[in-house]
Each structure stands twice: as structure tokens, then as C-alpha cells.
Design a protein that fits this description.
Rossmann fold, ten-stranded mixed β-sheet, 8 helices, 26% helix, 23% strand, globular, carbohydrate metabolism, Esterase_phb, polysaccharide degradation, xylan degradation
Length: 304
């Protein structure tokens, strides 16, 4: 390696290992509506680098701030040279920072009932990140909790040409989703004691039943089966970690594609290893750190 090349690599590593994030708040007009997001960027302004971008979707009734606090993705991913973005859903209370939902087709609330084009919004946000914020178009990742996890599934299906991997947490599928045209790796996390997203499917146990359209959920395991089909994967192998507190199902997939599903045995409707989503929310299990395993999974996958 030549001396200029050595120096360049040294400078890149120095910048990407910076522990501070460039904080910002942005808005994007989509379909005539101003949409808000929080963005945390590594200090890469001095170098023309393309870096991974992780989009984190809040749960129903949440907002960008709650997603950041709940998951801790900023503290983990930004020091490793990643952009982390926390977009917001919509609400009929336009001036309120909370009570936001995503249109995941059969859920939830205002966004579903108004048929808000959240897929178009996130697609436009990805385009902006690539054009203006140094995001690598081959390393775009999406994760989210609950309603945000359902939206993560929808984005993985409808934006499969833009997203490398997804990580839905305590979400579900309904059984009428089409297979995406492009493979998207998936890591799925559910809680066996989740009353809002029942392990065996059926009607949601949400405190807000009118937030749904009545379509029953498929069992949690269906999510792994769906993404295994989408990625051309074969049989699954079951194992356990954390002394049996977390069950892991790993599918045999073609090279470059992976589908893994975690089931936290004592997990409820919460982000494992994170913070409570609300005062009345379930206490997160500490048997699994969802942010850490998702981050590792994302960094191992890029679009070909």
C-alpha cells in the first residue's frame, strides 16, 4: 500500500471513529404535507465518503424522539460511521409531537384511515439521504417497533430495490403481502409474552382496537417464513441463546442473503435491551439487546 493510501485510510478511520454526532432536524414536503425527521450523522463532512444509513421507525403513538431514546441506535451506530435517521409518522393533531402512526395497510390509526403515502415519504427520504447526506445507496437499512415494525415490513416489500436489510421488532404480517421483486435480508424480533402482537396470531391485543382494520395477524413465525420465501431460502435451524431465554431460528439462504428470527421467551411488547416506549408500556427484556444484534446484522449486508 502506498504512503498516500495509508494516510487516506488513517484519516478515514480517524473520522469514522469520532464519538460525537452531528445532530440535526429536517423536514421534507411529500404530497403537500411537511414531514419531519431527526438525523444523526458521523463527522464526515471533510471527506467524500459513502456511509451506511439506518432508518428507525417509532411505534404507534410515538415520535422521532421516542424512537431514538427507546432504541439507542445513535449511541451505537454513529460512532461506527453510520447515519441514523428517525422519521415521524402522521397524526390528525398536526401540532403535537406524539400520537404519530404509520400506514402499514391494516394498521394503524390516522395514517391507515387516511391512506397516508408513507412508502413514498420514506422513498423520498432515502433519495435525499443519498443525494445530500453521503448515504451509500447499497447500504440502506430500516428497522422499527410495533406499528413501525409493520411499516418496516411494508417498506422492505415495496422498496426492495432501495433497502438492503430490515429489522422489524415486535411487529407482524397479515398474510396478504406480495413477495418483493428483489431479495431483502431480514432479522425479526418478537416477544413470546407480547399481548399486543400475539405469538400465535389472531386479533391484536392493543388497547386501541379501532387503530386496526380488523384483519387478523398471522402467527409470529410467519414473518420468518415469508422472508425466507422472498430470499429463496431453505430449511430453518433452531437454537437458543442467553441460557435458553432467547430462541433463534436461522434459515439456510443463498450467499449474501440471510433471514434470522429471535423469540424472547419472557419478552413483551417492548424493544429488547432498550428503554420503555411509554410509562404504561411493557418493561424491555434484558435477555437480548435488539439494537446490537440488528446493527451487527445490518453491517454484514449490502445490496448487490
Amino acid at each position: 500500500m502506498t504512503m498516500p493510501r495509508v494516510l487516506l485510510v488513517f484519516l478515514m478511520l480517524t473520522v469514522l471513529s469520532a464519538t460525537s454526532a452531528m445532530a440535526g432536524e429536517g423536514t421534507l414536503i411529500h404530497n403537500g404535507v411537511e414531514r419531519r425527521y431527526i438525523i444523526r450523522e458521523p463527522q464526515i463532512a471533510a471527506l467524500d465518503l459513502k456511509v451506511p444509513a439506518i432508518i428507525v421507525l417509532h411505534g404507534g403513538g410515538g415520535n422521532a424522539e421516542s424512537a431514538e431514546r427507546m432504541t439507542g441506535f445513535t449511541e451505537l451506530a454513529v460512532p461506527h460511521g453510520c447515519i441514523v435517521v428517525y422519521p415521524e409518522g402522521t397524526s390528525r393533531f398536526s401540532r403535537m409531537r406524539g400520537l404519530k402512526t404509520w400506514n402499514a395497510r391494516h394498521c394503524c390509526g390516522y395514517a391507515m384511515k387516511q391512506d397516508v403515502d408513507d412508502v413514498g415519504f420514506i422513498s423520498a427520504l432515502i433519495d435525499r439521504l443519498v443525494a445530500e447526506n453521503h448515504a451509500d445507496p447499497r447500504r440502506i437499512y430500516v428497522t422499527g417497533m410495533s406499528n413501525g415494525a409493520m411499516m418496516t415490513h411494508r417498506l422492505g416489500i415495496e422498496l426492495s430495490g432501495k433497502i438492503a436489510a430490515i429489522g422489524p421488532v415486535v411487529g407482524g404480517l397479515f398474510g396478504d403481502e406480495p413477495i418483493p421483486p428483489h431479495p431483502v435480508s431480514a432479522m425479526i424480533v418478537n416477544g413470546a409474552r407480547d399481548k399486543s402482537i400475539p405469538l400465535h396470531g389472531g386479533q391484536t391485543g392493543s388497547r386501541f382496537p379501532d387503530a386496526w382494520d380488523g384483519t387478523p395477524l398471522k402467527p409470529a413465525a410467519y414473518q420468518g417464513e415469508f422472508w425466507a420465501r422472498a430470499n429463496g431460502c431453505g430449511q430453518a435451524t433452531d437454537s437458543a441463546t442467553a441460557g435458553g431465554a432467547v430462541l433463534v431460528r436461522t434459515y439456510a439462504c443463498p450467499q449474501g442473503r440471510d433471514v434470522v428470527q429471535y423469540l424472547v421467551q419472557k419478552g413483551g411488547h417492548a424493544w429488547p435491551g432498550g428503554q420503555k416506549g411509554s410509562r404504561r408500556g411493557d418493561t424491555p427484556s434484558k435477555a437480548l439487546n435488539a439494537t446490537e444484534v440488528l446493527f451487527t446484522f445490518f453491517m454484514e449486508h449490502g445490496r448487490s
